[in-house]
Amino acid sequence: MKKKAAIYARVSTDRQEYQRQIKELQSFAERSNMEVKYVFEEKQSGFNSERPEYNKLMALTKEDIDIVLLWELSRLSRKSIEIQSDIEKLTSKGINVYIHNKSLYTLDEQGNINPTTKLIISIVATIAEDEVRTSKQRSKSARQQYIINEGRSYTSHAPYGYTLKNKKLFINEKEANLVRRVYQLCIDGYSIYGIAVLLNSEGLRTRANVLWTQATINSMFKNTVYIGKPKYCISSVRRTSKVFTRQYSRKVLEYVTLDRPELAIISEAIYDKAAEERKKRRHRSLAIDIQPYLLQHLFKCPDCNRYYTFDRTTKRQKYKCARKYDKTVEKPTCQSPALERERVEFMIWESVKYYCIETMANTRKEEQQLPLLEEIDALKAKIENIDNMKQKIVKKAEIIVTAAIDLKIHYSNMPELYNKKMEEVDKLNKEAIKLDYERKRYKSQIENAKSQIDAINNVKDMSQYLKDVDFDTKYNLLHEVVDVILPYGTKDNCFLLEVRLKTGLKYYIGYYPIRAYYIQFLPSKGNYFVGEERSGYLEIINAKSCEHISLETEMKKYTIVEYINQMDIPANRYPALPYRLKKRDKFLKDMLQGYSKEQLLEMLQ
Prior knowledge:
Blueprint: E1 3-11, H1 19-31, E2 34-43, H2 52-58, E3 67-70, H3 80-92, E4 96-99, E5 104-105, H4 115-150, E6 162-165, E7 168-171, H5 173-187, H6 192-201, H7 214-222, E8 231-242, E9 248-257, H8 268-282, E10 308-311, E11 318-321, E12 339-340, H9 341-362, H10 365-410, H11 415-458, H12 471-481, E13 482-489, E14 495-501, E15 506-511, E16 517-521, E17 527-530, E18 535-541, E19 553-558, H13 560-567, E20 573-575, H14 588-592, H15 597-604
Parallel strand pairs: 1-2, 1-3, 3-4
Antiparallel strand pairs: 4-5, 6-7, 8-9, 10-11, 11-12, 13-14, 14-15, 15-16, 16-20, 17-18, 18-19
Helix pairs in contact: 3-4, 5-8, 10-11
């Protein structure tokens, strides 16, 4: 009976070919009376653990295959500890592994682990990983020598103002003239934003034929290559966040400043003068007594996720999305509205007072605390799981240390084997450190949840401070309570504000600027708003079901205008700014419905 086999072939780059590996292994399988059921082939680095074909191979069971055929051990992985772990996983399933270039099997004919083979695999894997590291270091060292001593380009992408030819940088005079102009504009008093707007208004574009932005201009001011002293990174570390499929952002640990006077586009005096001017403008606002706006960093655009800025230039000062009105952005993608300052500040302050004191403190405490308590329980479970994982790592490290001691005793003439095993222990220690970091992070989240519970319990004590408070007190209280405010608007001059408090409570404010009142209400299972759709949903009784006296319900979708109009009932109405309450206001009559004169005067105090 033929044995079922799987072939795994891997190369690191597109320039390498794995067809020869597959053909050789297929020939071996045919000679050994094996039937190849699976062929896994991929072009991925052995240091990358996220390999689709590799994951498929490791998911196979004894029912699927009897043996895995490898061209060489490093095809499975480049990391010694991962190779040994993968071999152990496969053999524990009863799957044999054959390494072609060493003619080694991990299991004998009876299906037992071969201890000699296991030791050889450990040694070969460790040596292979060390060879890769050495090769990379030699290649990196040679490249650095070419760049530092022979004048090669320090970057594979030429900065603006330069052209890359034959791995060397040359000044591009057309672009260099624009670089000189940008620096001169800065010295003449233009801000970074002003420079970007000026270049775009003249129809000038970047090398990629897109609009100039503040970030692009700012990077030009920070690049020392323009004075003939480029900074070349010689040491960096990969960040944890992945940017692209096979590219990661890196943090520079060490760099050298190269001396390339032939690359100088501007003088050091101009570079320093521009830096001095930018520094002056950065601190210019400190000399002017400008009061911060009340809802600073609370409004956030639901489309581009940027905080609102404050426009003091118009008669009616407004909050508005920073990106929507940014002239350095080619096409605004957000639909967020500009909001009149006085009106929204009044509504937010009054609604926060109402919900924080009356609703939250009296009737919704337990309801708000419940999800926080559940979150704390979930985080504690994660911490317990981390503790279990750490115990496993400690046990694994103990096993490796024992193996290292045995190697030192029986192979005293090969001290490098002992050292490699201890390096594996160091890696496990690093994993344990990462788990400790995760544990601390979860602990911090638990403390944060507990502080939210404390905020809910203590919010009733704030009531004594909310009468006749000054601006600073209002500002501090709002920023302690409000997490974010998401504004939505329509062409009909109708607005909906989604207010989220740090205690977890969420509510809505709807208003028309021409009306003498606004509405505010809480969401529920049968009443909620979906920001991505810009639509509100209300639970209504199905009209057809009424004929059979059956109260079946359905969720009906409404536009922003329709949703606000549906919720515009006397119970949800609150008076707007006092100065808008005039007899000639045609909506005053509607606003007064449901309120006595005494109640209205009390609310306006």
